[in-house]
Amino acid sequence: MDRFSLTCKSERDMDKLAYIFSYYISDIVEHVLCFGGDILNITGNVLLALWRVEQNQLSDIITLVAKCSLEIQEKFGIYHTREGQDLQLKIGLSAGQISQVIFGDERQQYLLVTGRDVDDVQLAQRLAQANEIVLSWNCWMLCEQYMFEVEVMREDEAVKLRDMRIIDPFDFNEHFDKCLDYLPHYRTSAETLRTALELDLHSELDQTLRKHVMKNLLKKIDEGQPVEYVSEFRTVTLVLVSLEFCKTAWMLHLCHLIQEAALYISTVIEKGRGQLSRIFMLEKRCMFLCVFGLPGDKKPDECAHALENSFSIFSFCWENLAETKLVSISITNGPVFCGVVGAVARHEYTVIGPKVSLAARMITAYPGLVSCDEVTYLRSMLPAYNFKKLPEKTMKNISNPGNIYEYLGHRRCIMFGKRHLARKRNKNHPLLDREKELEAFQVAQQKCLHQKKGQAVLYEGGKGYGKSQLLAEINFLAQKEGHRVLPLMLKEADSKQCFYAIQTLMAIFFEIDTCPAYYRQAYLQRQLHGIMEEQLHCLFNDLLFVKFPLSFKVSHMDDVARQKKVKACFIKVLQEAVRETPLIFLIDEAQYMDAASWEFLKTVLSSMPIIMVMTLTPVFTLCGWAQHFLQSPQAILMPISKLATTSLLRMACWELGVVSIPQELQIYLHRCVGNPLYCEVLCQDLLCKDILLFHVLQKEEEENSKWENLSAIAMKSTMYSISPANSEEGQELYVCTVKDDMNLDTVLLPPFLKEIAVSQLDQLSPEEQLLVKCAAIIGHSFHIDLLQHLLPGWDKNKLLQVLRALVDIHVLCWSEKSQEPPNESILVPSSVNITDQTKEKKTKLDGGSASLLTLQEELSLPQTEVLEFGVPLLREAAWELWPKEQQIALHLECACFLQDLACRCGSCHGGDFVPFHRFAVCSTKSSKGTSRFCTYRDTGSVLTQVITDKLQLPSPQDSFQFQMKPSRTQEAFSSECCRTEQEFLDQVKRKLAQTSPETDLLTTKPCHCKDILELVLSPLTQHCLVIGETSCAFYYLLEAAAASLDLSDSYMAFFYLRKASSLLGQPSAFSFLKKHKVKICQFEEATFCCLLSEVCFNMGHITLAKKLARKALRLLKRNFPWTWFGVLFQTFLEKFWHSCSPSQPPNNPSENKKKLAVLQQRVHCLSLLWQLYNLEATASSCRFACLAALMQKHSAEELANEAQVVSTYVDLSQFSQTMGNKEKWLHYEQMAIQKSSLCWFSREGLLATAQLVQALAYTKLCLGHLDFSIKLGFQAREICRYLKKPTLENLVLSVLFRSAFLKKKFGLCVHVLESQWALISQGYDVLGLACFYSACLDLLLYGKGLLCRPFSECLHFFQIYEHSCVLISQSNVMLGVHSSLAMWFAQESQWDLFEHYFSKACQLVKSTNASLFGAHGFVRFLECHVLILQKMPEGIFMHIPLELRSQTLEYFKEFFSRCVTCPVYHQWVSELKASVMRCEKREFMSLTNSIRPFDTCFTRIWIKGDFLEEDNS
Question: Where are the alpha helices (DSSP H) in 689-733?
Fold first, then answer.
């Protein structure tokens, strides 16, 4: 076992070691207990068992123990591990008398077993080889020797047991029963094997036994924490003390010495939160194992405490314990397993790890010393002169122990401190967010110069807040202004040296700290010449390490007089210096300054104009003189605040050497909680672990044709960007992304940050620690019901009490979204199976209404009970403390709890985010499948019906079941079938006016699907990944991606799909070799491709989106052609074969939900395809788009769901409008109206209604009915806001703005744009922002001076994103943008820029369609043409071809032929064309008098005409 321990190189290896050792030792313990033995202790890799009997019973018991040993060797002698390291067992047996000694005091006691036979059993165990049993000579003498086959190893020392002779009529069972009479404590009938468990809690014996348990462990036991929750993986400091006594010492005397040593050791280490874990004897050597940093005892400076305490123990034992031959102490620091090992009936709290074994080896290798390993030496932060490097020595089973040092104790430094600060100023990284702090220094500087009084500025802030960086900046600024600066950084050890800070400052002042020692005295003498009498120079001998001859005057001074004279001399020297040059003291870590130095600085501050700038860490208690200094009116205490999030992100960019970081990394850096040092450490850790990929920043974004290459570019529009600190011409700039196979959620904290977080965690009470550890398993945000599920035995009152305590100290905080309780619960399971625990509760309830109400309350999880971590580092560190097996068990508990909530919210009536997802994959994820927890059942249970009744609305997915008997409400409502547009609009108006929930038509409950995504789906994917359920993880990743797209968050959808892609593995170059790492069904692969296609579409990667949509259709058994001939043939089949084969509704809908899932995905894929092809204004793309639209229509009709059919008809209507087909446009719109009767019965139907109202508003705008369009726009927006559909609402606002703009209601335009900005500014919707800024440009150009955003902001946005794939694919929008920019620069007479943007518009005009944005852009483009024609006589445009006029007329002709479905612009364009025709007849007047597009802020451009209607209302 020891060799296996020493091969552990990581915490993962130690995790496996602890797991294997615990199970291995538990089997052995259970075997010993079954044979009537007991376990005295488990120390490291040694187990000491005891059979306590009378002297005359020894021979029988030896036979019993020998049989037990043989069976143990047979079963567990060699244990093969997967890591290739075999565990081997060696057994030693001894018999005779032993002594049981108890050491300690009334608070803590320790059991030690000693005696000659204890030494004999240790010798026998050492003599044994692997798989051998060795009996001590005394044991051999006392046993029934004829029963054993042995081999004598050493005469009078030991024999090796080979086997037992079973001689008739000897029967071992009878012998066993006989031995039971000798073992009165053997429990045969009781449920517990330990009688101590049955003791009264307040009995005297119970109180005595409690003293043998460590305090922190005892608190957890009293708290009722499960044994499994006690174990942790954490970094500790181990101190192993070895006392070797003289061989002639009496045992009684040794016991007194051990008692004295134990009391001293436990008392000394208690100050540094260390604990004496164990005492054991090895012949004449007594060992004390002490541990610093056990759960609840972590301190940041534990290594320094361990070293100082060890030296105190060494000195005490060597000087005060007689008969002590040798004292040796070894100190190691590193990660270990601190927890419970053994069987259920007998377990022990111990520490396991390679550092434990290393400490034991160091005791042997370096006797008589206080030795420590290199990690302890570095982490102690003690001065190097307190250590001495030891020579390398060979240690058993350790190949590379690292450097070993001897600790020499704290010694006074015979040298000066160094003139430096902890940080150097980095000119490439300017100081961030420290303007107030610098201003405080500058104010103090001015006061000192003008008032001639000393000033002190003390900056107080936590570790890593940037105090040293601030001092470095002040140092730079002061020296730049010609001040003399004396910088000094103190350490903790300096506080123990009297006057050390002033000694070092004055050495720096005299500049003798850096000069050679032999030259120091002469240099100091020159400095003091003329200021001090020469006979007083010898006062500085001890202080400044010089050797002036002792004068008669000084020799007659006592120590107090000398100290006063030295201080007076220093003050006189400083007063002389400040008359010439302003003097500034910079003292970093001033909390480590000694009291004498504080006293002197207080005197200096009040006696001369000097500036002192210091930094303090608030956790330290300052001495009395420091308090007096702070209370001085000339001292200012300035707290340093945390950095703002944007400043931290900028710092991260600098640390990584990039100009942009992705959102995923931004979320990861939230762990910094405003601490610059944390940010620096995390960034360096990411670089060391090779987690990031770096890419050269390309000005133009290229479209990818492969999903695997999409990562870097896909996140460009979602990155946090900064300007480079030093941007030189031609310098390459970089952006970074996270590698696809890396998950930042599972990246372990750097050891430095983990130690800080664990020490913060240990400051909490045991209850608070356990709660934080369990909450860490759930995630950053968690619900208290799930938290209570992980805390066995906790009731709600206790949970809330501990939560309030943690919220008060800001460890946790209530979620910002949960300040106001909603009308209904968020996390209510619907359309999914319910936990067994809840089902058991249901069986106990009566049928009455009170029971029903109780059940509903138990199933509700109100939003106000959602919390999140206020200190993210604490969550990461707490999660890492769990052993791996316990982590998996708890993640499994969370997954089982959350799976029942992984559905749409109650107001959406439940169901999957991927429609019918669970039913489509039921064959691979059934309750009898391979999954440990993922089960899918239908919703026919009584309990599910209770929830459905509570929601008072049928599930929208259940409505897909072709209902043969509609409800009365639906029948009554469907009888009001809307046959005309006016009837539909009246119905919308009537339903929006209804506020009573009893109508069940328009519910007032808000949607909480976003909370479901954040609190259920996202954590659930992580739980599945941790427990290794990759199939379930893939399932929920698809659900999370679908939910993100449903919430219009393409980036998060991309994030989840990238995780899903990494689960699938890298695709093979050959399709027949393709093999996924995770087993998924064909439907899930199709859904994956469909979701990817939508994400790529939203990111502007059109080619890849088409490819993925086609692949999804192929997997869904619906091929889409590649060639024009295939399009013709498929169109023929769709038109004629489909009409001849009407689909019949299935007889049993419950058996066809998988078909419904497939149909839903087909409809979605085909909708994506026609939108993708519609972006390209070519004849070929038009044919493909028409076919996709036709196939979508047929698939939707086959689905036979009213909401889906209405949504499809709205899509087809919009498609026909963009294609310029007015007849089909209005026809499909009318069909959607006629099918909309039942759309008010589900959220999906309500969404279809919103789409239809938006489409009608769009139609009225295109037809020129502007007032009607505005009215419909407000109605559509009201429904969208209820549905929380930001993408649809943004589209509605765009239509509303265009209607108000053309109506000249510019005040309404500004209001709409403000609403649109509030909607899109927080997200990463580049297209939405482009539409917004395009509208702002229109308002700037024609809005009578009104503006929503300045032109510079609009221009800056388009300059950054014009090469984005998203905008490159949107020709309709960009045509209007470039034309508007050209018109603006024409207004400013910047004709070069006008031509630049006009040329870009010329490249886009052919690729636009008849949509509203396309027509609008075309109109702006025609305005530019007319402007050029009117300016050509002035000779402004030298590069414009002469045939421009005929080309312009061709464009007019093209506009009227293409934009048939946008008559709202026809009159306007006709006026523009008329002006061109008048130019041809030489009737051209100046532009100011001929053409007026609108009343505008232009002074030179005025287009005559009355297209824009006046707002006379």
Answer: 711-714
